Amino acid sequence: MEARHLRYALALAEHEHFGRAAGALGIAQPPLSKQIADLEREVGARLFDRTRQGVFPTAAGEAFLARARRALDEIAAAVVDAGRAARGETGRLRLGFIASALLDPLPGVLRRFGRDRPDVRLELHELSTSRSTAGLVAGELDVAITLGSPRGAGAEHLVSVPIGHDHLVAVMSTVHPYAGRPSVSVAQLRRQRLIIAAGEDEPAVGASLQALLGKSSPALAGAAVARDVHTIIGLAASGVGVGLGPARMLAAPRPETWFCEVTPRTPLPDLILSFAAKDHSPVLSAFLDTIRQNCPDVGAALDHRLRLTETE
Question: Which domain holds residue 69?
């Protein structure tokens, strides 16, 4: 039994005449009559009464036609669903990210993706760079935003592109003596109690601070340790000391804080977008399109990496 047999039976029930039904279907009457007869033999019951007044469904025919309508509706829905899935409009996207990515650029990306793909189920996981890398390699994540390039076993099989450059800034209470200044120097920082982050992703940031202040700097040795940039800002607002973190912190200002540049300018590790090179899922492609739209300077680098992957 094929879908066309169901359509033939429904057309015959609608038009109550073999000739009219055949005309509506665009076929000749004899093939339609044969197809209906074949269908009745397969079902094992007479589906239509042939009378002088017309052709009408039997009780068996009515029961069959009710299911046939639902079956054709399901087939049509399946075609629609398949098309939506192929365009990345449905499905699941598992994203791992570091906390500071929620300052920039992740909020704009997630808003746009949620608006354009409302039926995609987003699974969001705040993870360290090492855990995100392991998740990508194991197939537990589809995409990740990390601090610096993914590291560890299997990282060589990932496609990675920078999506955000950053540098060190200082944050302090508005009553701090340095508040109101456009910048603070390394010499000034060495005389302050510092607030730094020390999470799993901070070794690279710590290396930047050691290079800036000195590996055995008393200011670093006596620094207050925060879990993330939000805690750095909160402690600085409380007057604990001068917080040091990425310029992305400027996206989360508080009325009682003051931000200023650190001189000399100290670059920090880039935010990196990564995904498995072998992953060609439509949902991932849709997410990458959103990245291109929200981060225009990333598109060329992303397309270049994808072309290289195709030739490897």
Answer: 3-86
The partner residues of 259 in beta bridges, in order of sequence, read 171
The predicted structure's pLDDT at residue 160: 93
pLDDT higher than 60, residue 202? no
Range scoring the smallest mean pLDDT among 193-197, 203-207, 284-288:
203-207
- On whether both 274 and 264 belong to a single domain, the answer is no
Burial letters for 40-66: b for 16+ Cβ neighbours within 10 Å, e otherwise? beebeeebbeeeeeebebeeebeebbe
User: Burial, 213: exposed, middle or buried (Cβ in 10 Å; 0-12, 13-18, 19+)?
Assistant: buried
Instruction: Grade residue 216 by pLDDT with cuts at 50, 70 and 90.
Output: confident
Average pLDDT of the chain is 90
CB atoms near residue 218 (< 10 Å): 11
pLDDT confidence bin for 108, thresholds 50/70/90 = very high
Rounded Cα distance between 54 and 194, Å, is: 92
CATH number of the CATH domain containing 228: 3.40.190.10
**DSSP annotation string for 258-273:** EEEEEES--EEEEEEE
- The pLDDT of residue 43: 94
**Domain containing 60 — which CATH number?**
1.10.10.10
> 129, 160 in Cβ contact below 8 A?
no
Give CA–CA dist 131/120, Å, rounded.
24
Q: How many domains does the chain have?
A: 3
Its sign, for the CA torsion 63, 66, 68, 70, is negative
Rg of the chain, C-alpha, whole Å: 32
Query: What proportion of the chain, given as a percentage, has pLDDT over 70?
Result: 96
* Secondary structure (3-state) at 242: strand
84 φ/ψ angles, rounded to the nearest 5 degrees: -65, -40
Residue 152 and residue 228 in one domain? no
- Regarding whether 295 and 154 lie in a shared domain, the answer is yes
> Is 209 or 116 the better-scoring residue by pLDDT?
116
